[in-house]
Amino acid sequence: MKIKEVMEKAVLISPADSRKVLLAVAKKHPNIPLFIVVDKKKRLLGDIHENDLFYMILPNDMYDEIGTELGFDIEKKFFANTAEEIMSKHDLSCGPDDDVMDVASQLAGVEENEMPVIDKEGKVVGIITQGILLRHMKC
Question: What is the CATH number of the domain that holds 95?
Fold first, then answer.
């Protein structure tokens, strides 16, 4: 089975999107855990996981209460104002014609749960998650 048969549509965002825009996107797509940051040609720049967006949306003054306990990376998330400031850059991706089991093996070897699906032209065409793969794997 190919990834293009099971992938979900990616939610694409601009690197300049503000906190307010990102929150609106998250509310509009409540079941999407990963938002893909792309350039004008829909090429991958990075991604934002809903967990990271959660910290970005919290009021900045909450950082003193909980941020220092959580670690160094959290400060960036609390004080980010745009998608570009909070996005993570990952080298992990797959193509629409990749085999489901091959991609499952690739995801099993890393600490990521999702990845973008990128076509031969370098454009983001979808996302794949461990949950999607789980539902389509054969025992």
Answer: 3.10.580.10
Q: What is the DSSP string of 47-105?
A: EEEHHHHHHHHS-GGGIIIIIHHH-THHHHHHH--BHHHH-B-----B-TTSBHHHHHH
Q: How many CB atoms lie within 10 A of CB 129?
A: 19
Tokens of 12: 């694409």
Q: What angle do CA 14, 86, 42 make, to 5 degrees?
A: 25
The radius of gyration of the chain's CA atoms, rounded to the nearest angstrom, is: 16
Contacts of residue 58, defined as CB under 8 A and 6 or more positions apart, other chains included, come to 78
For residue 26, give its domain range: 3-136
Q: Give how many domains the chain has, as a whole number.
A: 1
Assessment of whether the complete model's pTM goes beyond 0.90: no
Residue pLDDT, tens place only, 97-126: 999 999 998 888 887 888 999 999 999 999
